[in-house]
Design a protein that fits this description.
Layout: H1 20-27, H2 29-45, E1 53-56, H3 58-61, E2 63-68, E3 72-79, E4 82-89, H4 91-99, H5 106-114, E5 117-118, E6 121-127, H6 131-144
Antiparallel strand pairs: 1-2, 2-3, 3-4, 4-6, 5-6
Helix pairs in contact: 1-2
Length: about 150
């Protein structure tokens, strides 16, 4: 008997990457609105820079949409009824965050401070369920890589 998905479960059918309809059905319409808004923001802020690609992390991690040029920019995680973004901050990016602590949201700084630093950086997993959380993600992405276009 197959078990129903639970909050945070990943898409693990490896037969093909999920399409927009599957993503919307999996994460839900509210989370999908944030997913689409962030995708559109990246396309507008970094025109022609990123070609997002689906990566499969196995049965445990499932599908993720990765934005990468030479280095990882961010990764979208479609989880059941949840949308999260992973941003890895290396040493240079962490210095930028520290220099702008006062300008970043207290919620983001609490997550940043509580995230362990590894050899390759801090791996922040940010749940996006509000416009404020979406702004936190875009603020970090701007620190990570300066946008090409002006808003």
């Amino acid at each position: 008997m197959k078990q129903s998905p639970g909050i945070g479960d990943r898409l693990t059918d490896r037969s093909a990457p999920p399409d927009d309809i599957a993503i919307r059905g999996w994460i839900g319409p509210d989370a999908y609105a944030h997913w689409s808004a962030l995708r559109d923001w990246i396309a507008a802020a970094y025109p022609g820079v990123f070609a997002p690609d689906w990566i499969f992390g196995g049965q445990k991690h499932g599908w993720a949409l990765r934005y990468k040029k030479n280095r990882a920019f961010c990764t979208f995680l479609p989880e059941y009824r949840v949308f999260s973004v992973v941003i890895v901050l290396g040493a240079a990016e962490r210095e930028k965050v520290e220099a702008r602590r006062e300008a970043l949201s207290p919620r983001l700084m609490k997550l940043y401070d509580s995230t362990e630093t590894y050899r390759d950086g801090k791996w922040l997993k940010i749940g996006v369920s509000s416009a404020d959380e979406l702004r936190d993600v875009t603020d970090l992405l701007i620190l990570k890589r300066r946008p090409r276009s002006v808003f």
